[in-house]
Amino acid sequence: MRTLLMLLAVLFIIATPLVLGGTFKGTDDQASLAIEQTHPGYKPWFTPLWQPPSSEIESLLFALQAAIGAGILGYVIGRKHGMAAKPDVTP
Amino acid sequence: MHIMEGFLPPLHCVGWGLASAPFVVAGTTRLKRLVAERPEARLTLAAAGAFTFVMSALKMPSVTGSCSHPTGTGLGAMMFGPAVMALLGTIVLVFQALLLAHGGLTTLGANVFSMAIVGPWVSWGIWRLSGRLGVSTAVSVFLAASLGDLSTYMTTSVQLALAYPDPASGYLGALAKFSGIFAITQVPLAVAEGLLTVVVMNALSQRVGEVSIK
Questions:
Q1: C-beta of residue B164 within 8 angstroms of C-beta of residue A39
Q2: Distance in Å from the first CA to the final CA of chain B
Q3: Other Cβ atoms within 10 Å of A38 Cβ, number
Q4: Are B114 and B57 in contact, with CB atoms under 8 Å apart?
Q5: What is the pLDDT of residues B162-173, one digit of tens each?
Q6: How many angstroms separate the CA atoms of A70 and B130, rounded?
Q7: Which of A 10-69 lie inside 8 A of B, CB atoms?
Q8: pLDDT (tens digit, 9 = 90+) per residue, B30-53?
Q9: DSSP class of residue B3?
């Protein structure tokens, strides 16, 4: 029950800004703009070795990162749950 | 969000790299010893690493109208101490720098310092302190995870302010400006991370017969 309430609170925190509106640009882009303002003409002295060719590929890789993490996390929680159900089995 | 590739002067990159390196080395040693002494901890260690992996992939909207992502480093810091998170956080940052052009290799030292060192140490400190003050476990976990998250982005703001002092208002002016971008945006996300960490911590510990958190 408390878990459900906490998850609902998270949902609320994430959904509220969408209702309030905004451009939702990344804070890293905003920081580079701010640097540009006080230090006009600043050029990064190094560029990423490889960049996702499009924003679709970028979201693919971010989704992959989240999926790998969520998969492992779910596996561990499930396994611990299973271990607790059979206390005679030593982990 | 991490500091972008090529956005810190070379001297700063080297400085933050030198500051971070010993923590990552110590984290590796600590992790090896942990696995040798408690092989059963491998499962929970994987979960702690996986949690940072998920959290730092999720860019979320904030009430400031911009986007950032949580760090997820507090969970592992509370379960295994802050040292191991230096290594786990570095792995996440290298993945993002190489495959996502998010953060960067030149700024890796600075980003490791904020996300994989300062964040976990702050989380761990608050976790220990709240425990000593008799604060309930759930509240302690919440405070530790959310303030650790926030401290990471305060560090990012300090790092950028040191590199780009404002021509008019100097270092403090720049710090106020970068905190306005990173830290304020992070406040609601830090609350979300705190709540999610409590949920995951419950799921990981409650169901095993004994509470493995020390």
A1: yes
A2: 31
A3: 16
A4: no
A5: 999 999 999 999
A6: 29
A7: 10, 13-14, 16-18, 20-28, 30-32, 34-35, 38-39, 44-52, 58, 61-63, 65-66, 68-69
A8: 999 999 999 999 999 999 999 999
A9: P
